[in-house]
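2024-03-11 09:14:02 INFO queue: dequeued item Lipoprotein, len=180
2024-03-11 09:14:02 INFO validating residues
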Amino acid sequence: MTFRPITIVILSILFLSGCVNTVPKDLESISTNIKIEHDSFQNQTWITTPLYLSRQGITDTFPVKISFRSLYKNDMREFIQLYVTSTNVDWGFYHSANGEDGYSFGFSDIDREVSTVGNMVTTEEHFGLIFPIDYLEKMSKKDWKIKVYGKRYGGVFIVPENMSKAFMNKLSCYESDKCS
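2024-03-11 09:14:37 INFO prediction written
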């Protein structure tokens, strides 16, 4: 049995993203899964959403896994980051990203990994997009498109409104000392 290259790509993406859920539609499902983890030894707190698969439907050409996270040190917010994982059959060498309004995100390379399944090799690139709280507020008003640029590849993905809104609400709750 022979496979065409596009079939292999589709199968590898489905295989590798099989254990990651898509973003739930309702705010409550997202909110209840946001974790607040305090490390008293470093006097810091991480607030994170689960890793979700961002999909644009059947025509999606750049499926990625996304998670919001924010770091607080000494009860002061250090940053808000959209953590992104892209899986492909080759390196994209991503280096920058812009929001649909032209906003240029701070870009942070986090990790690159290679996996093999049988004779198929896949790459996984992890990077972070850093932005201020007012931009998260803007993203929480509608589904937000982000375009990632790389030396070889690039693509557009969507951050669902409900995911941004739930994370925004959790940060507000934490900062007002109403949740732990």
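2024-03-11 09:14:37 INFO annotate: The CA atoms of residues 70 and 80 lie 4 Å apart.
2024-03-11 09:14:38 INFO item closed
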